[in-house]
Automatic annotation (TrEMBL):
Identification of the protein by name: Reverse transcriptase-like protein
PANTHER family tied to this protein: ENDO/EXONUCLEASE/PHOSPHATASE DOMAIN-CONTAINING PROTEIN, ENDONUCLEASE_EXONUCLEASE_PHOSPHATASE DOMAIN-CONTAINING PROTEIN
GO MF assignments: RNA-directed DNA polymerase activity
This protein's UniProt keywords: Nucleotidyltransferase, RNA-directed DNA polymerase, Transferase
Top-level lineage group: Eukaryota
UniProt keyword Nucleotidyltransferase present: yes
Length: 266
């Protein structure tokens, strides 16, 4: 189904003359996945007054018995003092994992951008706003170049089609998941045994069908042992072809012996 014009732009077809295929470059207008949230607790250390904290902490130490003071007791006293002056505050933040293409130049460019933004918000001058916009555009350009170089290096190191598809799925957000089967331990064991029993039964039936089919040039004795063949014949009804070929054989054992004594078809 073709995409709408709202999702695609800057479509470019490039002929690399490498093969009869063309390189298609397109910008997709898609939404970024939402970031995961988590709750953290912290203290606002900027509101701490050193002189007041020192006074409160010394007063709390005077209540302690010097003969039984331990490291844990001092730690608890310090925490109680901080809880009085700077209580813990809970806040929700977004998880921001470090991008693999992040580098020192991006970090420095972001620092310059933030410094220019603070200056513009403080003065509200047009010249400072223009400087901030210049730094913001510079950060975007550096990030795009670093990201492009990172993925180019990734594609250059691909050695197999499997790695190529895995990298493409990662770029498209197609993360593969392998969910484990659900159920109790006994139920999983029974399902496991049933699966392999069915597999063995299907293989045995296939091997048996090969030997009773006259058009198939296959030797059954190379597939199963004599005991397995004997069990298969005892559990299955002989076909018309088997009865026609072994009219003088009245016992299954003789039929199996003739199979094993026959020449192997190649």
């Amino acid at each position: 189904m073709p995409l709408s014009d709202n999702y695609t732009k800057n479509i470019t077809v490039i002929d690399k003359t490498i093969s009869d295929h063309y390189l298609l470059s397109v910008d997709l207008n898609t939404q970024r996945p939402s970031k995961t949230k988590r709750t953290v607790t912290s203290r606002n250390w900027k509101m701490l007054e050193p002189s007041k904290f020192s006074t409160e902490f010394h007063e709390a130490l005077k209540t302690l018995n010097n003969s039984t003071v331990s490291a844990g007791c001092l730690d608890n006293t310090l925490r109680r003092t901080l809880d009085q002056l700077l209580p813990l505050q809970a806040r929700t933040i977004s998880q921001r994992p470090v991008s693999p293409w992040f580098s020192l130049c991006i970090k420095v460019a972001k620092q310059h951008r933030r410094r220019a933004e603070r200056r513009w918000r403080k003065t509200r001058l047009t010249i400072h706003r223009h400087i901030f916009m210049t730094h913001r555009h510079k950060v975007k350009t550096i990030i795009q170049n670093c990201k492009r170089e990172y993925f180019l290096r990734k594609f250059e190191t691909v050695t197999s089609e499997k790695e190529l598809f895995m990298l493409s799925d990662h770029l498209l957000g197609r993360e593969r998941t392998m969910p484990l089967p659900s159920g109790t331990e006994i139920d999983l064991c029974e399902r496991f045994v049933t699966f392999f029993n069915d597999k063995i039964a299907n293989v045995s039936y296939l091997a048996f069908s090969l030997i009773i089919t006259p058009k198939e040039n296959v030797c059954y004795k190379t597939i199963c042992g004599k005991a397995n063949i004997l069990a298969s014949f005892s559990n299955c009804e002989q076909s018309s072809y088997v009865c026609h070929r072994f009219q003088t054989s009245t016992k299954t054992e003789r039929l199996v012996e003739e199979i094993f004594n026959s020449k192997t078809a190649t």
